[in-house]
Amino acid sequence: MKNAKICWLVVGMLLFVLCSTRVIAQESWQIRQAQERLKAAGFDPGPIDGLLGPRTKTALRQYQAAQGLPTTGVLDAATRKSLGIQARAEAEKPQPSTGGGTAGDKATTLAKQKGDLALGESVYKEICFSCHGIKGDGKGPSWLNTTPRPQVFANPAYMSRFTDRYMYEVVKYGKLEVLKGEVPDSPLEAVAMPSFGDVLEDDQIRKLIELEHALLNGQEPPDPEIKAIFDEACAVCHGKGGRGDGDRTISIQPPPKRFISEIQPPPADYTNAQLMARFSDDFRFWLIKEGRIGATEKKNFDTMKSYGHILSDKEIWSVIRYIRETFIEKDKE
């Protein structure tokens, strides 16, 4: 009983740290936007670094005085409104669409604006098909050489949750760099699966994997204690039913049938057979124990490498356009 209480306490602390990290990233993003707008308006904030330093505070006071706002020197709600700054989730959040589509959503039209469909097809059939397959089924000639298996693009129910920007950064810089926040000036809130090895015993991790299989098969979770752990620690991202639609993933609850995840990459949908077929139980074990970054750096599981040294930006945007229009949106009416 004592060990169980300690376990729940540590899980709660981990969730607190994750939420705190998200808040800090949000504040930094808003400060950076404020610095850019202040500079454009003629108020020098110093370096555009996302930090509320002395020069930024001075610029804020000068702007606030010019606008007749309280001269607080902080980025308060009135100043954010005056500068036209939204929370990142609000700025990038997709609007619910009718008919299950994503037409008109800003997050999924960048590639159409910046890419060429014919060029994208050429790049895909020259390079990408070897892992992801000509049909986008993740079964190209070298698909068995990677663990987990390559992404299945012809899976609209899950792939429609990705933003064009996230896919662009993964292709250009590599997934690991994106998850570690090492992409310069990225507007994304990239969230890697955290490690739970410090708070869960190996047997509990294995039982969580059994729960994932039960969700995929439409069965009741076999162990009430493990379901309680899932609801407390996992459902915030993966949803109570394991469909990858928790409160942190999509703030519109209950979520629409199709949505774009507010964190990237979208959390796994344990009920999606095409997605879950990519992951062996061994990979799932180390993913939960070490987290996504640790599973790659410590256990050598594969992840998408960078192609920015091979492909131009135009080629990258073009191949993303081809993937979206050929595989992801193929079932749109």
Question: How would you sum up this structure, described in words?
Answer:
It is built from 15 helices and no strands. With 333 residues, it is mainly α. The protein folds into two domains: 2-85, Muramoyl-pentapeptide Carboxypeptidase, domain 1 (Orthogonal Bundle), CATH 1.10.101; 98-328, Cytochrome Bc1 Complex, Chain D, domain 2. Helix 10 packs across helix 14 (281-297). The longest helix has 39 residues, at 2-40. It is globular, with a radius of gyration of 22 Å. The termini are far apart. The relative contact order is 0.14. The model is unreliable at 13-26 and 88-104 (pLDDT under 50).
Question: Could you give a quick summary of the protein structure above?
Answer:
Helices cover 51% and strands 0% of the residues. The protein has 333 residues and is an all-alpha fold.
Keyphrases for this structure?
333 residues, mainly alpha, Muramoyl-pentapeptide Carboxypeptidase, domain 1, Cytochrome Bc1 Complex, Chain D, domain 2, 15 helices
Q: Give the number of domains.
A: 2
Structural class: mainly alpha
**CATH architectural grouping of the largest domain:** Orthogonal Bundle
Stated plainly, the CATH topology of the largest domain is called Cytochrome Bc1 Complex, Chain D, domain 2
Largest sheet: none
Shape type: globular
Based on CA atoms alone, the radius of gyration comes out at 22 Å
What's the helix count?
15
Could you tell me how far the N terminus lies from the C terminus, measured between alpha carbons in angstroms?
Answer: 55 Å
The fraction of residues assigned to DSSP E strands is under 5%
Helix content: 40-55%
Give start-end ranges of low-pLDDT stretches.
13-26, 88-104
Q: What is the mean predicted local confidence, pLDDT?
A: 85
CATH class group of the largest domain? Mainly Alpha
**Would you report the number of β strands?**
0
Provide the succession of SSEs. Answer: HHHHHHHHHHHHHHH
CATH H-level superfamily title of the largest domain: Cytochrome c-like domain
